[in-house]
């Protein structure tokens, strides 16, 4: 039986992961979700369907967070960061996803 998020109107979200080499199984441009979905729902799909699962944490018991140190931006606004435990949204971040949103997961450039 599908969950409540599997039924109803669908929305399309543009997704970029920079850099994506050695992280993704296949090219990722757009993901279709149900209206009312959140960033957490999107990340679940990315981890499940697109991320290569070949890196384990130091204990070998679970997959390492391959996005550790990356930031997540929604429509060019940084809304959270990834640490060793996963995604940590900023307190004031809007985690709802709307049709046409641009989501970017990227390693921040370092300055000199």
Structure summary:
The chain has one helix spanning 39-49, and strands at 10-18, 30-34, 71-74, 77-83, 86-89, 102-106. The chain is mostly beta strands and 112 residues long. The mean pLDDT is 85.
Task: Write structural notes for this entry.
The protein is mostly beta strands. It has a single domain, classed as Roll (Ubiquitin-like (UB roll)), CATH 3.10.20. Helices cover 10% and strands 30% of the residues. The chain is built from one helix and six strands; from the N terminus they run ββαββββ. The chain has one helix at 39-49; strands spanning 10-18, 30-34, 71-74, 77-83, 86-89, 102-106. A six-stranded mixed beta sheet has the order 2-1-6-3-4-5, with helices on one face. 12% of the residues are buried. The model has no long low-confidence stretch (mean pLDDT 85).
Do you know the CATH topology? Ubiquitin-like (UB roll)
Order the strands across the largest sheet as they lie in space.
Answer: 2-1-6-3-4-5
Strand content: 25-35%
Give the overall average pLDDT: 85
Strand count, sense and barrel status of the largest sheet are: 6 strands, mixed
Shape: globular
Tell me what the CATH architecture is. Answer: Roll
Helix content: under 10%
CATH class category name: Alpha Beta
The domain tally reads: 1
**Low-pLDDT segments, ≥5 res:** none
CATH level-four homologous superfamily name: Beta-grasp domain
Radius of gyration: 14 Å
